[in-house]
Design a protein that fits this description.
Largest sheet: 5 strands, parallel
Order of helices and strands: EHEHEHEHEHHHHHH
CATH superfamily of the largest domain: Response regulator
Distance between the termini: 39 Å
Strand order of the largest sheet: 2-1-3-4-5
Number of helices: 10
Number of strands: 5
Shape: globular
CATH architecture of the largest domain: 3-Layer(aba) Sandwich
Helix content: 40-55%
CATH topology of the largest domain: Rossmann fold
CATH class of the largest domain: Alpha Beta
Radius of gyration: 17 Å
Number of domains: 2
Amino acid sequence: MIRVLVVDDHPIVREGLKQILSDTEDILVVDEADSGQAVLDCTAKTNFDVVLLDISMPGRDGLEVLRELKQLKPKLPVLILSMYPEEHYAVRVLRGGASGYLTKASAPDELITAIRKVASGRKYISSTLAERLTYELDRDASKPLHEILSDREYQVMHMLSTGKSVKDIALELALSVKTVSTYRSRVLEKMNMKNNAEIVLYAVQNKLID
């Protein structure tokens, strides 16, 4: 039996995932969590075979939780389930130690297949993501600017590039406006940019947004 921890800050999403997985004979949802801290608390007291982790949560987001989980339990497979298309976060989370990446638009059968695969110790990537990873490996050694950003800086940069204000981002991530402003300043400094318009242009040119 594959013991799963379902992590998402939306109760309706967790219920939907539990319903999908309840139809399988070999997958059991043992517990659920709605925040980054809850994930760490659950994994500290219970042994799971797979953590199904949402990437976008208020406060301590999925990227940060992934990093901490891999430090605490390096062998615990973490399957990322996200609303963001693969090209936005997949390569980054796989480099961060995730065992796979799925979008919430994926079919239920694909989710079940992915859980079984990562539980067996293998990686799960879609065919389109496999192509992107091949491109990443074959690409010139000089890294694009956004790869020098920390996970949180990248998240703020991506949200700014979609037109969200500092206040909007602060509300969505449950951070203070001052903290988000600090991240924005770091992004501009590291990427040698002056304003949000340059961030948007860069994101479009590098296909980080649709």
